[in-house]
Amino acid sequence: MKKFLLVGMILFSWNLLMAQDDVVRDGSTCENAILFDWDNGHIQDANQTLWYAVTLDDSFLNKELVLYLNNLTSDSITVVAFAYLNCASDARPARTDSTAMSANQFKTTSMQAIFVNHIIKNLGGTVYFKLTTEEGSIQFSSFARIPEPTALQENRENGFKVYPNKAAAGTALTVELPEAGTLRLFDLLGRMLQQWTCTGNIQTLAVEQAGTYLLQFHNGERSYQTLLMCE
Question: Is Signal among this UniProt entry's keywords (predicted)?
Fold first, then answer.
């Protein structure tokens, strides 16, 4: 009898913990973010704001993340996404994006491998997204893949220097390049924000919005890249 009672208490405690976890993971705050479902993805209804926690382990190293986004309605909708690297009360979004989608439209975007590696090696492997759906519902999912080969001979990390890094948004930055070429600035999900043609080894630039960015330099034969963090 005591054994049955003990088993019953254990099962009751387990079910209670599972129910509590369901409540905790309701997506209402960063701390209560819904764990991202790699197998099935998610559907978010219209006019909702929800948080999601994307956890990456070492199996994701040197891979890029591809995100599928599908408008499930026959009307145009707007999706607003904020990406955060932690849940601190004073945390600023590493990326902000507002996307207009036409009826039943399907979109893809990607996070480059250098960002994925940074999240795993330096940030504990978790990134947070706050997603707002306006006027309609969406379906989204993601998978990891090895980046396609580039025509350039190299795609090396930290092939040039940036001073200072970390920097305050809007302040002047000095980039020390290996040679003349093209310098490009990308956000967390691969959108090119700015481009500079560099005729010498030193380039001065400023990034107006706080966040984590990718600076990529190439000269037609070689490519180098490094992360830039603005606060």
Answer: yes
Burial of 98 (0-12, 13-18, 19+ CB in 10 A): exposed
Question: What's the CATH number for 155-230?
Answer: 2.60.40.10
- Residue 103, both tokens: 């009826």
What's the whole-number average pLDDT of the chain? 81
User: What beta strand segments (E) does the chain contain?
Assistant: 34-35, 42-44, 48-55, 64-71, 77-84, 95-101, 106-111, 126-134, 138-145, 155-157, 161-163, 172-176, 181-186, 192-198, 202-206, 211-218, 223-230
**Residue 200, burial from CB neighbour count under 10 angstroms (0-12, 13-18, 19+):** exposed
The answer to whether 102 touches 183, Cβ cutoff 8 Å, is no
How far apart CA 115 and CA 8 sit, in angstroms, is 47
Closest CA to 143 of 59, 45, 31: 59
Reported as a single tens digit per residue, the pLDDT across 101-152 is: 999 999 988 888 888 888 898 888 998 999 999 889 999 999 998 877 654 4
CB distance 177 to 203 below 8 Å: yes
Q: Which two tokens stand for residue 192?
A: 């090119």
Sorted by where each begins, the domain ranges of the chain are 25-145, 155-230
Claim: this prediction has a pTM higher than 0.90: no
Task: Answer whether CATH 3.30.499.10 is correct for domain 25-145.
Answer: no
Residue 215 CA from chain centroid, whole number: 16
